[in-house]
Request: fold
Amino acid sequence: MADPASDALAQKRWMAITVLRLVGVLMVVAGILAVNGAIALPVEAGYVLIALGVLDTFLVPQFLARRWRSPKGE
Reply:
């Protein structure tokens, strides 16, 4: 059976990755709203939010998953 401490750590890491993805999606939505003029932000800020949101949704979770991956043989 797995160690309860390692299970708790894995659960926290999974939650962190999930929250990062959700925040990234929300950034993309906010950027789209800014570009369309639905919220009071400059259009340039909307494009920056879209770009950062895409990075936050796709690249950051993969980076963290690789960093947190268990060594081979465990």
